[in-house]
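hiii so um. not sure if this is the right channel but i have a protein structure encoded as tokens and i wanna go backwards to a sequence. like what aa goes where. can anyone help
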């Protein structure tokens, strides 16, 4: 069953707020300045886009297929442009934005590969892309949602794409410097109204009996006092680098080159997303790992010669020597005659 956001717009606008840690990471890792051009795909009622506009003064554009959600967004501020559209087909010329992002949208997008490719196309060189979503671990640990409405877990696991699949799609779309970061925001829940109003779409997807049971339980516990809650998200980042950019790589970029080298060698930087902020480690099944590594090998075969040289250095040298090889390659790229 697909959610009709035109029907949900009023409850969404009334109850859903910005996650402060997501906003912080978007500004910092998105390198947002007042001159930045930002696109939010699936902007809904404009929560994140308007908060970014307010905190950084950047130029903001939001697209969403739901006119109901867009109407709410437009009624809040005229400082951002809100237009109807789908993530899979971004109606903008290349090099239009410095940051393209979406929050809690990717599970609604039918053709995710098309979205990621479109996002990369409309970004400028060096532009950043971010998908904010829920991992399997987050879905199982949501509090109060999963704690009071456990039936939502199966529904969500069925519709949210696994994080490793999204990372592989990002790489396949041509993004580099791929990383994942989990954030959390603890708070005290004092009011059951957002849950009574079903401001969380999964509450529309569980049986009415299960919903009523969860609400009764939540209200009973709230009668004893506020409920300790925590909101998690995982941010998946990628950068649009192009061949010309390699010519500008300096000493300070060697860290990121080393990370890329590790991506090529090991598959993906699993450690970054497997370890949550509270220290829990999510295991990655070995067949899943093998699939990811096969995909990396496929992607790798199309990489620019520089990255192939890095790969060769890793295969033939000890770890200590790899950085020396990298430095030589960087120097050679900066002055090709020295090669
Ligand atoms: C859970 S809401 C998130 C809204 C907003 N990003 C926020 O966090 O407040 C999901 C939004 O995704 C939009 N959406 C659904 N399918 C989409 C698609 N194919 N492309 C872009 N947005 C889509 C919905 O209309 C809805 O506004």
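sure thing!! here u go:
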């Amino acid at each position: 069953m697909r959610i009709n956001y035109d029907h949900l717009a009023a409850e969404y606008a009334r109850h859903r707020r910005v996650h402060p840690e997501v906003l912080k990471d978007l500004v910092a890792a998105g390198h947002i300045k007042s001159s930045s051009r930002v696109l939010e795909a699936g902007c809904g009622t404009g929560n994140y886009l308007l908060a970014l506009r307010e905190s950084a003064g950047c130029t903001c554009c939001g697209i969403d297929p739901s006119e109901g959600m867009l109407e709410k967004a437009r009624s809040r501020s005229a400082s951002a442009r809100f237009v109807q559209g789908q993530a899979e087909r971004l109606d903008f010329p290349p090099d239009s934005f410095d940051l393209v992002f979406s929050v809690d949208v990717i599970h609604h997008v039918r053709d995710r590969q098309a979205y990621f490719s479109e996002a990369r196309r409309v970004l400028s060189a060096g532009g950043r892309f971010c998908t904010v979503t829920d991992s399997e671990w987050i879905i199982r640990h949501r509090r109060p949602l999963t704690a009071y409405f456990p039936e939502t877990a199966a529904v969500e696991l069925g519709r949210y794409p696994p994080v490793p699949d999204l990372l592989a799609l990002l790489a396949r779309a041509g993004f580099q410097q791929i990383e994942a970061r989990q954030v959390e925001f603890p708070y005290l829940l004092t009011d059951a109204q957002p849950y009574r109003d079903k401001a969380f779409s999964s509450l529309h997807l569980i049986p009415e009996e299960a919903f009523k049971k969860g609400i009764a339980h939540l209200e009973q516990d709230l009668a004893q006092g506020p409920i300790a809650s925590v909101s998690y998200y995982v941010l998946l980042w990628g950068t649009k680098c192009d061949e010309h950019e390699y010519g500008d790589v300096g000493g300070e970029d060697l860290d990121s080159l080393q990370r890329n080298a590790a991506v090529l060698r090991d598959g993906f930087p699993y450690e970054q997303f497997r370890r949550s902020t509270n220290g829990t480690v999510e295991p990655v099944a070995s067949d899943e790992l093998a699939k990811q590594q096969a995909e990396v090998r496929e992607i790798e075969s199309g990489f620019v010669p520089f990255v192939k040289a890095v790969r060769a250095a890793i295969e033939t040298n000890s770890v200590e020597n790899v950085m020396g090889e990298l430095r030589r390659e960087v120097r050679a790229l900066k002055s090709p005659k020295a090669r």
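oh and Residues 5, 16, 41-44, 47-48, 64-66, 69, 86-88, 103-105, 108-109 surround S-adenosylmethionine (CB under 6 Å).
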